[in-house]
Amino acid sequence: MADVSIIIPTFNEARYIKSTLNSLQVLTPPAKEIIIVDGESQDKTLFLIQNFIDQTSLSSVIKCISTSPSRSQQMNKGAEIATGDYLCFLHADTYVPPDLITIIGKTLLNPSIAGGGFISIMCGDSSTRWGISLHNFLKTYYTPLLFRPHLFFTKRLRILFGDQVIFCRRQNFLDCGGFDTNLPIMEEADFCLRLCQYGHIKQVNRIVESSDRRVAKWGAAKANLIYLMIGFLWGMGVSAQWLKQFYDEIR
Predict the structure, then answer these.
(1) How many structural domains is the chain composed of?
(2) pLDDT tens, position by position, for the chain (251 residues)?
(3) Are 7 and 89 in contact (CB under 8 A)?
(4) Nearest to residue 172, comparing CAs of 144, 192, 153?
(5) Which of 81, 94, 150, 171 has its CA 20 to 30 A from that of 75?
(6) 240/60 Cα distance (integer angstroms)
(7) 251, part of any domain
(8) pLDDT for res 203
(9) Distance between alpha carbon 208 and the CA centroid of its chain, in Å?
(10) Which of 150, 148, 174 lies closest to 159, judged by CA?
(11) Is residue 238 part of a domain?
(12) Taking CA 180 as the corner, what is the angle to CA 176 and CA 185, rounded to the nearest 5 degrees?
C-alpha cells in the first residue's frame, strides 16, 4: 500500500471543508495522514476542522497547523512535516475518487514518472461547467506545447494546476525545492517545470470534481478570458506578481 500524505491548504473554506473531509473518510485504502495547513482563516474553517476531528474516525490521521496566508508556503509547510513517501496536494473545494491512494501508488510505481494529476471537472450546485472543464484539460497539453515544446516532447511535460490534485514523490518534491513562495499565482505550473527534470508528468485518466465558485462569480466568458490571458502571458515570461491583479481570491 502506498504511503500518501494528503496536504490541504485552507483559507476561509467553511463552505467546503467538511464535505471534503467527509469524502476522505471513504478512501480505500486510507491515506497515511491528512495535513491541513490553514492560512489564518477568519471564518469557521478551524472550528469545523476541529469538530470533524473530534467526531470521526480520521482523528488519528489528521494534523492541523497554521502558517501565513500564502498557498505556496502552506503547501511547503505541509510537505515539510509530511511522513509519507508520496505527497498529494488537495484543494479544500475538490473531491477525489475513493481509490485515490491506489491511483497515486500505481502511477508513481513507474520510476520514469515524477508526478501527476487528474482531469478536473468544474461543478456548481446545479450545473457542470463542461466548456471550462474541457479547456482546463486541454491547457494541460497546449501550454507546454506552445511555451516549452522541448520539454513537452522530451520530458512529456504537462502543466498541471491546483484543481487537478497534483501528486509526486516526497523526495522529488524536496529535490526540486517545492513551490516557489515568491509566486502569488501559477505556483503549480512553475513547480511542474522543475519537477519534470526528475521524470514525466502524467495526467491520469480519472476525474476529480472542483467547485465552480470563481466562474460563478466572474461569469463563464470572463473566466475563460482571464484564464487564457494569464496562461499566455505567464508562458511568455510576464511575472506572476503582476498577473495576480487579475486573479482575486474568491471564497
Answers:
(1) 1
(2) 689 999 999 999 999 999 999 999 999 999 999 999 999 999 999 999 999 998 887 778 999 999 988 899 999 999 999 999 999 999 999 999 999 999 999 999 999 999 999 999 998 887 898 988 998 899 999 999 999 999 999 999 999 998 999 999 999 999 999 999 988 889 999 999 999 999 999 999 999 999 988 888 888 888 888 888 888 888 888 888 887 877 766 44
(3) yes
(4) 192
(5) 150
(6) 38
(7) no
(8) 95
(9) 11
(10) 148
(11) yes
(12) 135
Whether residue 160 lies inside any domain: the answer is yes
Residue 203 CA to chain centroid, in angstroms?
13
From CA 109, how far away is CA 116, in angstroms rounded?
A: 12
Looking at the domain assignment, is residue 26 inside a domain? Answer: yes
Closest-CA residue to 61 (of 39, 83, 40)? 83
Identify the sign of the CA torsion 80, 89, 72, 65: negative
CATH of the domain at 208: 3.90.550.10
Question: 10 Å Cβ neighbour count for 241?
Answer: 11
Segments of 41-162 assigned E as strands? 62-66, 86-89, 94-95, 113-123
Cell triple for 217: 462569480
Domain, as residue range, for 101: 4-246
Question: How many other CB atoms are there within 10 angstroms of residue 59's CB atom?
Answer: 10
Exposed/middle/buried for 227, CB within 10 Å: 0-12, 13-18, 19+?
buried
pTM: 0.93
Strand order of the sheet with strand 62-66?
Answer: 62-66, 33-38, 4-10, 86-89, 167-169, 113-123, 200-211, 94-95
Are the beta carbons of 68 and 34 closer than 8 angstroms? no
